[in-house]
Structure formats: structure tokens, C-alpha cells
Design goal:
The chain has 142 residues and is of the alpha+beta class. The protein contains three helices and six strands; from the N terminus they run ββββαββαα.
């Protein structure tokens, strides 16, 4: 992914594909990349920062985010369609490279995204799923 712009339906993202650049319309972008270089050296993240859609965290370890993982734009407002989890949260959470932390972040983010789809009345059309109240979910241990 080389960039993203707001669109009426959500976001239009640009990706570098084997057959050339492409644009895709998406509802959300979740950056779940592994540890790497500072945000300003990653082409996608640098593009989001240059466009004012994101900003580096104060320590320069990743991206500035709200507690939900929503990217903060250049003015410090949380984005409603751009999220991150894992190592790009290092400047906010510091310890965020182990699977248990990332799994918990992913679970919280998934719940937020499903809730937002349900609130918009699109639960049947996005992802082909419905939100199931957690009280009605049962699990069994083997």
C-alpha cells in the first residue's frame, strides 16, 4: 500500500501490485505490520504523515494514536477509518511486539469495527456477518 485518501464510501487506497499500481475502495485500513524502521521511512506511513492523515508519536517509535488504535491526524484528531496495532503503537504502549498484546489489540479493534458497522445498519452487507452479543457467546475448553 502506497497511500490512502478519504472517499465517500470510506477510503481509496493505492497499492503497488505485480501488474502495476491499483486503487481499491475500502471501509478501513488497519496497519498490522511488524517492527521496522521509523514511520517516516515507511512509504505508506510517510505518505499518511505528509498528507496530514497521521503523525509520528512523540518518541519517534511509531505513530501517534488514540487509546483505540485510531491514528491521530496532524491536528491531533483521531481518525475514524485509519487504525494501527502492534509495533507501530510502541510510542504509545511501548511493549507491543508480543503475540498476547497484539491479540488483545486485535480483539478490541475487531469489536470496535463490528460495532461501527452494526451502528450504521450495515451488518448484513459488510463482511457478511452480524454482531453477536458477547453474553450469548459460549466457548468450551478441550
Amino acid at each position: 500500500m502506497t497511500g490512502a485518501d478519504a472517499s465517500p464510501a470510506g477510503l481509496t487506497v493505492r497499492v503497488a501490485a505485480g501488474d502495476g499500481p491499483r486503487e481499491l475502495d475500502v471501509g478501513w485500513v488497519v496497519n498490522g505490520t511488524g517492527p521496522g524502521s521509523p514511520a517516516d521511512r515507511d512509504p505508506l506511513l510517510a505518505g499518511l504523515i505528509a498528507a496530514g492523515e497521521a503523525r509520528p508519536d512523540p518518541l519517534g517509535l511509531g505513530l501517534a494514536t488514540a487509546a483505540s488504535g485510531a491514528l491521530l491526524d496532524a491536528a491531533g484528531r483521531p481518525h475514524d477509518r485509519l487504525f494501527t496495532l502492534g509495533p507501530t503503537l510502541r510510542g504509545t504502549l511501548y511493549e507491543t511486539t508480543a503475540i498476547p498484546e497484539i491479540r488483545a489489540q486485535a480483539a478490541r479493534l475487531a469489536r470496535r469495527l463490528v460495532d461501527s458497522v452494526a451502528a450504521a445498519g450495515r451488518a448484513d452487507t459488510v463482511f457478511g456477518c452480524r454482531r453477536v452479543p458477547s453474553a450469548s457467546v459460549t466457548t468450551t475448553e478441550s
